[in-house]
Amino acid sequence: MTITRPLARAAASAALAAALLLTSAAALPAPARLIAIADVHGAYDDLVAVLQSSEVVNSRLAWTGGAATLVQTGDVVDRGARSKDCLDLLMDLAQQAPRSGGMVVPLIGNHEVMNLIGDLRYVTPDMFATFAGPDAEKRRDQAYKDYLLFLSQHEGHGHAVPPAGSAGRRKWMEEHPLGFVEHREAFGPDGKYGAWIRGNHAVVQIGDGIFVHGGLNPASEFASVAEADERVKADLAAFDAMWRALVEARIVWRYMTFAEAVRFVVEENMWRQGAGRGSGFPARDAAIRLLGYKTWITVSAEGPLWYRGLATEPEGRLRPALEAMLKRLGALYIVAGHSVVADKDVATRFDSRVFLLDTGMQKDSYAGRATALEIKDGNFIVHRTDIGPRFLVPPRRWDGAPPGL
């Protein structure tokens, strides 16, 4: 035992180091077993159930997947109140898995980006409440005072009227529930979840498969999976730099939502133009970038986080371009979420060149179910919590031979 324990510790350390090294690239080797799960949206109990049914964790939420790779294709957050718990679980499993030679590959979904940039349309008060600490009331009151101070510095511009009296304060408090401030900080560049998400991939190739949240548009111009991935990460880095510049210049308030910031910058720009101060004002380049947000790949309907064509376009029309793209990228198939499958079960399209995994796990929103796709020994197997495993037709290699992973 005095010999085997150090060896076991060394092996675990080596596996962890190797896994961390591999996750710095957007292409990973094929594991012996891969489990893919799509949109969770805070459905914590269902996430746990499908992880257990696919033998990735046990009842104590300990990793039991051995050397398997778990891919989560994004949209862990929003809609469901337990979004934070889902993130915590995946972050914990990402630490556990390498000790057994396994790996967790969490991808960035459009809802992760929405939380990073402050598009909070789908964050519920119950979700905000999970971020509230014991001093949440005090922190919110201080944020309100800071907001009024910010507005007072913009008086006379014609766009900033501080809320007046108790009615205005009450309305602001309703729009900023307890936990709002903590949520915004947690998803910031230095926050627990913001830092983790920014370090994840948006697109990754594992063996013969490409894994992405929304999909890859065959009409997009990118030479490799790594390039598509880096464009998303570069977009997020540019957003962070832009936001920091606007906040430091007091052009936007640090806890503004994305929509508020855009509206405020538009009005600020109009005031400066009208006052003859349109050029050379602080953070002007950052303001221009914010107002050009529709060109960002992270919010584009044609970008990898939002594209739905693989789920909606007629197969006959898209097939030639899709196959050409896959061949160019050295892949056989794409696994995606984002577009809820009509019958709430894993679906294939384009002769199993596309696997659609969003089965509406968040029942309150989609009345769906939790599912997972297992890829092992060339077999593609659907796991559900209500029935037994189901085998899918695998994609064939371009020479007609059956695939491996």
Walk me through this protein's architecture.
The protein is of the alpha/beta class and 405 residues long. The protein has a domain of 46 residues. The protein is 42% helix and 12% strand. The protein has 15 helices and 12 strands. Strand 11 and strand 12 form a beta hairpin. The longest helix has 24 residues. The protein is globular, with a radius of gyration of 23 Å. 42% of the residues are buried. The N terminus is likely disordered.
Strand order of the largest sheet: 1-5-6-7-9-8
Instruction: Report the C-alpha radius of gyration, rounded.
Output: 23 Å
Major sheet description: 6 strands, mixed
Query: What characteristic shape results from the CA principal axes?
Result: globular
> Strand share of the residues?
5-15%
Residue ranges: pLDDT <50 for 5 or more in a row?
A: 1-23
Task: Kindly state the percentage of residues in helix.
Answer: 40-55%
Quaternary form: single chain
Count, helices: 15
Short description:
42% of the residues lie in helices and 12% in strands.
Strand and helix map with partners:
Elements: H1 4-22, E1 27-28, E2 33-37, H2 44-53, E3 69-72, H3 83-96, E4 103-106, H4 110-117, H5 125-129, H6 136-152, H7 165-175, H8 180-186, H9 192-198, E5 203-206, E6 209-212, H10 225-248, H11 258-274, H12 284-291, H13 309-312, H14 315-329, E7 333-336, E8 347-349, E9 354-356, H15 363-366, E10 371-376, E11 379-384, E12 390-392
Parallel strand pairs: 1-5, 2-3, 3-4, 6-7, 7-9
Antiparallel strand pairs: 2-10, 5-6, 8-9, 10-11, 11-12
